[in-house]
Amino acid sequence: MPMRQDCKFFESRTYANGDTVRKCDLDLAPEAPWRCPTDCQAYTRRMADVNWAHGTLVTPETPPEPKSLGEDDSIAALLDAAEDIINDAVAGTIADLEEERRKRDKRGVRRSGKRKRSMPGSQKSGTQKPAKKSRKQKPPKNGGESFGDRMRRRYREGQ
């Protein structure tokens, strides 16, 4: 049976370079993208496309079936072997990343978010920042009473 494009678990995705992926999200179609199992227990008719973005109104045409499709299990065996190669590569890549992470962690945490303070006299000449000028404080208005003092006085007096 050809791939059921009306199945809830059928997915078709077209990339910018023109490649199209047709697959069963549950990985139950060993001969995807050409055929679904005729007695698939997971087949559920798609009722609505919720929150999907459709690029075109028509799903691109399914590629032609290989001549040997359905005659023997060679296609399914080939696709299973390819899937095993990919899964092995992913496991190896994850192991490599974990090893790099362990090596980095062995070196210790070098950046804790704080800068190291230099010892007195260890700075190069001419690299010191100039001292900040102190701000002159303005005298409070209204006869020397600050805003905070006025608010407290008003609160106490009930105004």
Structural class: mainly alpha
Which shape, going by the Cα principal axes?
Answer: elongated
Helix content: 25-40%
**Which series of helices and strands comes N to C?**
EEHHH
What does this structure look like?
- This protein is mainly α.
- Among the domains are: 1-65, no CATH class; 67-105.
- 30% of the residues lie in helices and 6% in strands.
- The protein has three helices and two strands; from the N terminus they run E-E-H-H-H.
- It has helices at residues 74-106, 141-144, 147-157, and strands spanning 10-14, 20-24.
- A two-stranded antiparallel ribbon has the order 1-2.
- The relative contact order is 0.08.
- The mean pLDDT is 75.
Question: Would you kindly provide a brief summary of this structure?
Answer:
This protein is mostly helical and 159 residues long. Helix content is 30%, strand content 6%. Among the domains are: 1-65, no CATH class; 67-105.
Please supply descriptive tags for the structure shown above:
two-stranded antiparallel ribbon; mainly alpha; 2 strands; 6% strand; 159 residues; 3 helices; elongated
